[in-house]
Input
Amino acid sequence: MAEPVKRGYRSELRATQAQDTRRRIVTAAAELFVATGFGATTVDAIAAAAGVSRKTVFTAAGGKVELLSLALDWAIAGDDEPIALVDRPEVQALLRLRDPAAMLDDWARVLVGIDVRVAELFVAMEAAANLDPAARAVFDTSNDQRHQGAAVIVDAIASLGGLRRGLRRAAAVDIGWLLSDPVLYRRLVGDRAWTVARFEKWLAATLRHQLLAGAEA
Output
């Protein structure tokens, strides 16, 4: 009578082990992409770093492009849970705010948290996009998703009557998309040695200045 329980336990254990293996592989791939570049990183090197076989890499996660895509998605989200960024608690919380300025301040905080995780990997992804058409597709998809995320924020602000006078929705979304680009973080924090706190304060102030009603005064 206890056999179904044992089978369920074994199945759950195998699923957990498979998930752990996948995490090791994606983490190893991300570290190698950052350290040596997408082009110079081989599947064999990823397998060795993760402590698995070459076949396991493909079975668990796919080839290099799939690994790059997963690594980027996980870095953006902060974990490997299949939950879209817009549906995550911190984003849902800021979308419930009724003060447009507070909403943009929280969005800046969320964006900087993402920047901290993705900045170095984003460099590798940009380089990969120039080498591989499939990697270019990953890069373009990431940019499109960021544009969609900016649209969600802009629409929330517009619903509160918070957009600056004369600013069209399309332009507002483009501005939000531009200011959410990790390249800004890389330039100011990475190249110019700004602190993360200084960058977040600047980003929030710039978003408010560019998007909010009253900023045109």
User: Anything to note?
Assistant: The radius of gyration is 20 Å. Residues 3-36 form the longest helix (34 residues). The chain has ten helices and no strands. The CA atoms of residues 165 and 172 lie 11 Å apart.
